[in-house]
Amino acid sequence: MNRSEFCSLPASVALGLLWDNSTGIRAAMEKIGPPQPAKSPKYDSAIMRAGGVMYASECDLESLRFWHNRSLESANGGGKWADKDAKRAKALSFWITWREQNPTAVWSGERNHEHVTAKPPQHKPEIYPRDAKPAATEPASSSYSYDDDTAGNGTEAEDDYPF
Questions:
Q1: Nearest Cα to 96, choosing from 35, 49, 34, 45?
Q2: 107 and 77 in a common domain
Q3: Are residues 25 and 87 in the same domain?
Q4: Domain-located, residue 12
Q5: Is residue 103 part of a domain?
Q6: Is residue 62 situated within a structural domain?
Q7: Are both 59 and 15 inside the same structural domain?
Q8: What's the structural domain count of the chain?
Q9: What is the predicted pLDDT for the residue at 155?
Q10: What angle do CA 113, 114, 118 make, to 5 degrees?
């Protein structure tokens, strides 16, 4: 078999032939062991934008690499935000590793102290307002009850109040 015939084989067949006929490759691969799947990040990473904040969980691989490189450049350049950018670059590197193995997976985990399921990864994810607060909850019910039977039993002056 010549090189062009070998290259025209399906990848699985070619890899099988290499594995069977090369003890050096087999020995090297046995030392390495099987690849370990990347763990899903537990916490989401915020990426600050001019209009608000977007989250790494909703970024595709290309976007994550862009923001990672930008954070690295800023961290390596020194300055006021170098430590913060280095920390962000480290967090984004975990996201890149996970997104490489799970390019379309929807992430679920903790964001802003709340458990969330993120939107599917996109090239341009949604930008959320920075001051977004959780939705307001209903006020606690009061133990006071208004008794219709006693209403209007005060003096006439008291009954004229609008409240």
A1: 45
A2: yes
A3: no
A4: yes
A5: yes
A6: yes
A7: no
A8: 2
A9: 52
A10: 120
Long-range CB contacts (< 8 A, 24+ apart) of 38-42?
Answer: 38/97, 38/98, 38/100, 38/101, 38/102, 39/98, 40/98, 40/102, 40/105, 40/107, 40/108, 40/109, 41/91, 41/94, 41/95, 41/98, 41/107, 41/109, 42/109, 42/110
Q: Are 125 and 63 in contact (CB under 8 A)?
A: yes
Confirm if 55 and 44 have CB atoms less than 8 A apart.
Answer: yes
Q: Would you say residue 145 lies in a domain?
A: no
* pLDDT of res. 153: 53
Whether 64 and 28 share a structural domain: no
The set of residues, in sequence order, having a beta carbon less than 8 Å from that of 48 and lying 6+ positions away, is 130
What is the full per-residue pLDDT of the chain (163 aa) written as tens digits?
888 888 898 988 888 888 888 878 878 878 887 878 888 999 999 999 988 999 999 999 999 999 999 999 999 998 888 999 999 999 999 999 999 999 999 999 999 999 999 999 999 999 999 876 544 444 444 444 444 455 555 555 555 545 4
What confidence score (pLDDT) does residue 156 get? 52
Instruction: For residue 69, give its domain range.
Output: 46-117
